[in-house]
Amino acid sequence: MEIPIMTNTDQFQELITCVICHERYKDPRILPCSHTFCYKCIQKSMQDGKFTCPLQDEQIIEQNDIDNLPTNRTAKEMVDFVLHINPSLDKKAYLPCENCNELQAWNWCEKCGTNLCETCTQSVHMIKIFQSHVIVPLASKVLSFCSEHSEEKFKYWCTQCNTLVCRDCLLFKHKDHTFLPTKDAADEVTANFEKLMQEVNGMKRNLMQFSTTMKNAIERQREVVRHEMQEAAHLFANLQRLLEERKCALIKELEDRQVETMKILAQQQMKVDEHLKLTTVQEFCIRKMLDSSDPIQILKFKSTLAQNYQEFSDQYHRIDEGCIIQRHMFKRDDKDLEHLADMILRLGNIKSKSYVVKKDGVTVKTIPLDLSKISDNRTDVISKEQNIARGYKLLLKQPMKLRSIRVHSDHIGQLVGFIVDENNNLVQKGVINSVNSMMKWVTIPVECELKNNYGVLVLPPSNNGSYTYKNGDNQFRKVNENCSVKSRLCSVANQLILGSPLTVINNTHSISMIIDVEE
After folding, report:
1. Contact (CB, 8 A) for 169 and 155
2. Which residue(s) pair with 245 in the sheet?
3. Beta-strand runs (E) in 359-425
4. With 90 as the cut, is the pLDDT of residue 369 above it?
5. How far is it, in rounded angstroms, from Cα 199 to Cα 320?
6. Is the pLDDT of residue 5 over 50?
7. Which SS3 state, helix, strand or coil, does residue 10 take?
8. Closest Cα partner for 448 from 472, 470, 418?
9. Which one of 159, 219, 377, 416 has the largest count of C-beta atoms within 10 Å of its C-beta?
């Protein structure tokens, strides 16, 4: 006798269960504090026209605001998806035990052809002559028989119609169609599920890293604003009464902007945390299929899991793109005290700089400048070129803050990006260890202030790769209003040491390069 046991039940139930009614979510609503409860539970828990979050975060919702609380679609989809995968979890789908007629039936004996509750399953089949009977969940019994031929079990998978069929189906409706035994078809689906499991685990690791980064970013954001507010308070404390009104105005501006930034971070945090929960459900449901020995159950939900996984994957990639926040700084403007009375209305200002919050950290938002030659449609490949650095000389109207260099390459090993000044002396460099074997954009982090006549070059120390280029000339060409470039080449025989002079010459090969600079 075999009675399948659901794994990870406690963890799974926690994700889809309201902490107030201890049942699966019904119309789940999410609070500003990111906690979720059933809509009716919120209404029933009102006291003096207010609902206080029971999870001790001091979040209070007025009665008039309850209807405006957004639906937690992730929680709702988790409940709907799980009930679709396992209808036996739905309390509405009630069938009585055919042995005692008192308790709800959860199992089915194939030999007896009887619906049984858990108690009767154990008691009846403890008898020796019944111990060879096969016990399956009641939901599996419903899924095992053909809906058109109620006496026939599903035994085949129609590859043309992509559906389960019985013997009679193959004789009539699916005559002349190609088919596979359910076991063979299920083995193929199981192999695909194993690949999906690996992808889900990878996404889960990234989301956990993203969640940690988001929490650190929130704390850092608080620290940054707290520090700037202290600076503003210290300055205005010395200016006494004349500056008091201005001080309050600037602090309020900081607080207002902080609310906007924290809202973005909180929303992103909520998306990451909710999607992280969803990975557990995805992992659980796929694992349930992988652990199942019933090919019917595996095939029945193949399309459902595949469609759900595609939506889940699309949501994950949107989250993985990160979010943009503003960092706010108080600019100190010390003037002579005798002139402060006239300057009081315009003294001090709040400046903001855009940052990108991604799973691996918080970085300044940059804009890409594509230095590659674009007039020639033909793209060639430079390969197996050792100790030759290629790049561009920059003609700038205004200096730019460089954050990284991107090159279209398939090099495996070190890639060095470096900057030379107007005298071709090395002023900065960055190194990345590339493991990429396909031709794609590889990013080399290099931070440097680019000035007029500076050069940006990339060196692959080894010859085990290539990068793309287009034929060019030795003339400057315009990239944007501030920047023009021309192709350059440098032979590097020795180790790159900051301050060392290099020989940089003109070059007609315009390699594919993008530089990321601050806005």
Report:
1. no
2. none
3. 361-364, 366-370, 380-383, 388-396, 400-409, 413-420
4. yes
5. 14
6. no
7. helix
8. 418
9. 416
Chain segment 251-301, per-residue pLDDT in tens: 888 888 888 888 888 888 888 888 888 888 878 888 877 887 778 777 777
In angstroms, the CA 217 to CA 215 distance is 5
Alpha helices in 301-418 (DSSP H): 302-320, 340-343
* 473 φ/ψ angles, rounded to the nearest 5 degrees: -145, -170
To the nearest whole number, what is the mean pLDDT of the chain? 82
Q: What share of the chain is helix, strand, coil (3-state, %, to 5)?
A: 40, 30, 35
Pull the structure tokens for residue 312: 């889940």
Beta carbons of 189 and 302 less than 8 angstroms apart:
yes
- 486's enclosing H/E stretch is strand 483-491
Contact, 352 vs 224, CB < 8 A?
Answer: no
pTM of the model: 0.45
CA distance 114 to 362: 60
Q: Cα(506)–Cα(488) distance, rounded to whole angstroms?
A: 5
Share of the chain above pLDDT 70, in %: 87
Alpha carbons 450 and 280: distance in angstroms, whole number: 46
Long-range own/partner contacts, residues 93-100 (CB < 8 A, 24 or more apart): 95/138, 99/124
* 451-452-454-455 Cα dihedral, nearest 10 degrees: 120
d(CA 183, CA 294): 9
At 6, the pLDDT band (50, 70, 90 cuts) reads very low
Burial pattern 457-487, b for ≥16 Cβ within 10 A else e, equals: bbbbbeeebbbbbbebeeeebebeeebbbbb
Lowest-pLDDT range, 44-53, 86-95, 472-481? 86-95
- Residue that wins the pLDDT comparison between 331 and 41: 41
Strand runs labelled E in 27-167: 28-30, 36-38, 50-52, 60-62, 107-109, 114-116, 135-137, 156-158, 163-165
User: What is residue 1's predicted lDDT score, i.e. its pLDDT?
Assistant: 36
Show Cβ contacts of residue 160 under 8 Å, excluding neighbours closer than 6 positions. 174, 177, 178
**The two three-digit tokens of residue 100, written as one number:** 């005692």
**What distance in Å separates the CA atoms of residue 332 and residue 232, rounded to the nearest whole number?**
8
Nearest Cα residue to 372 out of 456, 432, 254: 456
